[in-house]
Amino acid sequence: MALTAASKKRLVTAALVGPAAAWLFVFLVLPFVAILVFAFGRRAPEGGYQPAFTLEQFANLGARSAAFVNTLVLAPAGTAACLLVAYPVAYYLAVKSNPKYRLLLVSLVVVPFWTSMLVRTYAWMYLLGARGIPHLLEFVGLTDVRLLNTAGAVLLGIVYGYLPLMILPIYVSLEKLDRRLLEASADLGARPVATFFGITLPLSLPGVMTGVALVMILLLGEYLIPQLLGGGKVFFIGNALVDLFLQSRNWPFGSAIAVTLVAVVVVILLVAMRVAWRVAGTRQVDLL
Amino acid sequence: MRALVTAVYLFLYAPIALVVLLSFNSGRNASDFVGLSTQWYGKALSNTFLMDALRTSLIVGLTSAALAAVFGTMAAMGMERLGARSRAVFDGLFAAAIVVPGVVIGIATLVALVELLSIVNPALAAFWPFEPAPKLGLGYGSIIAAHGLFTMALVTMIVKARLASLGRDIVEASNDLYATPLTTFREIVLPQISPSILAGFLLAFTFSFDDFIVAFFVAGSKTTLPMYVFASIRRGVTPEINAIATMVLGASLVLIIIARVLMREKKPRH
Fold first, then answer.
1. How does the average pLDDT of chain B come out, rounded?
2. Is the pLDDT reported for residue A284 higher than 70?
3. For testing the chain A interface, which of B103, B237, B263 should be mutated: the one with the most A CBs within 10 Å?
């Protein structure tokens, strides 16, 4: 029986997307269903999972409230700090820098983000450790300064690690800005400050939203920075998850926390998308 | 503003530069710079645990990037032919694969795999015709599969962007001249998207090679290079770690620069 042209076309399409679809199903959809099921179960006596249908894991979330509090305070604080540093840099790159070197300068910002986060965070362990900056401070008379294993160190690590991810989307939206609008504003007698707040800033908000959403989402699941720079004192949800799954082997409780984390991420994403749509039509940003 | 931007660049690069500098320290102590030497590189390269971890990371990275390059490219091409709704579902899933924190991907994959294996292994034992029946466990396969998720998403995104900017008319012209779809693909589409595929492959490899957290969950008894580095850091800073870190940074830097050059779109000349 000969295939019709339409069904042949459909077969080719299915063959093309099939493997990736199967992969997404087995290694993304199925795992999420699994942790959702686990979150309603009980911990087996020897660790692991025992089937049940109970809400006790969710009711117990308060047992790890410190991790939630740390994450929900430090992730937004870190995101805000990133934004504060990133905006002027993105503005300089997009508006003030010499166009001849612009691409190079932007690349120089982005490259660190694509290199090993582990190594870059480790560099700060070194700098903040007893033989790093505190050692230098002794020469000016400041003794016993402790920098490593503090909330400040974690914040610094966050800004260092995620700054490029914040700069890039803001840069992209500022770069697309129509220069004629700025000239028109100046021609109409607006001072540079008025032009900035009236035109530049509002038009760059989609980029700001993208940057904030990206950094925030990744920070909510952060593990390495609190682990290395917070020294087990300033831990995030991600650290609690590793502990629950690999040490305590309390899989149902860990699953409940993971499900809650994903729910928070989804809510933030939806809010950010709504705001971004309202502010401007752009939804896409080039992450590379 | 210039001063601020300069300060930010210093902030971004100074810590990295410091690690690189200290990796050439000839002293025994990691923090006191005595003189230049490459002895720690020699020590690192003759460390068998480290070399094992490196081999594991290379096998995992190359395999998952290769799978991603093939299936990701196919998916990008197939998605162009899908209806709006199924395309949106795919887009959402691929975006989730990149944006969902690695910790969550890692634990979810671990939980699902352990559950899956607890079904598959008894079934294998029951139906396998020879003794002993193979027992599947966590290891290369599970890391490659878990990394395949985000590497595939990455390649699909990159190739899809390239396909979208590809002129439709040249493909149609090829069809009008009675080229078979396969010929059109080989002669027209592939040459234009192959730089993007290669860039996707390199970035996918870098992602997989740098990943710590997903592998941490699903590696079983295997150790990848970032897992080794993480464990060593927690044991205490040594100059050898600086040498390893420098090599990791250097390798990912080179790959990223190549990938970005490949991805640079050729602007049409007017």
1. 86
2. no
3. B103
Q: Which residues are within 8 A (CB) of A199 and not within 5 positions of it... i.e. 6 or more apart? A: A181, A182, A185
Calculate the alpha carbon distances from B259 to A278, B58, B265 in Å.
Answer: 35, 18, 12
| Crossing angle (nearest 10°) for helices A151-175 and A99-114 | 140
Task: Please tell me which of A111-125, A155-169, B23-37, B96-110 the model is most confident about, judged by mean pLDDT.
Answer: A155-169
Determine the distance in angstroms separating the CA of A240 from the nearest CA of chain B, rounded to an integer. Answer: 10
Residue B29's pLDDT is 65
Nearest to A17 among B79, B96, B237 (CB): B79
Does residue B179 sit in helix, strand or coil?
coil
Q: Which residues of A232-271 are buried (b: 16+ CB within 10 A; e: fewer)?
A: eebbbbbbbbbbbbeeeebbbbbbbbbbbbbebbeebbee
Contact B229 A245 (CB under 8 A): no
Given a contact cutoff of 8 angstroms between Cβ atoms, the answer to whether B108 and A31 are in contact is: yes
Q: What is the reported pTM?
A: 0.87
Residue range A87-115: mean pLDDT, rounded: 88
HSE toward the beta carbon, residue B241, CA cutoff 13 A: 24
Residues 192-251 of B with CB under 8 A from A: 203, 206, 210, 212-213, 216-217, 226, 229-230, 233, 237, 241, 245, 248-249
| Chain A / chain B CB contacts < 8 angstroms | 223
Q: Which residue of B has its CA nearest to A265?
A: B100
Q: Please state, in angstroms and rounded to a whole number, the distance separating the CA atoms of residues A10 and A15.
A: 9
Residue environment code for B19-32, b if the CB has 16+ CB neighbours within 10 A, otherwise e: bbebbbbeeeebee
* B217 contacts in chain A (CB < 8 Å): 245-246
Contacts of A238 (CB under 8 A, 6+ apart): A71, A221, A222, A223, A226, B101, B103, B213
Smallest CA–CA separation between B127 and chain A, in Å?
23
Residue A174 sits at the chain B interface (C-beta within 8 Å):
no
B8 near A85, Cβ under 8 Å? yes
The confidence band for A1, taking pLDDT boundaries of 50, 70 and 90, is low
Q: What is the pLDDT at residue A103?
A: 86
For A275, phi then psi, to 5°, come to -60, -45
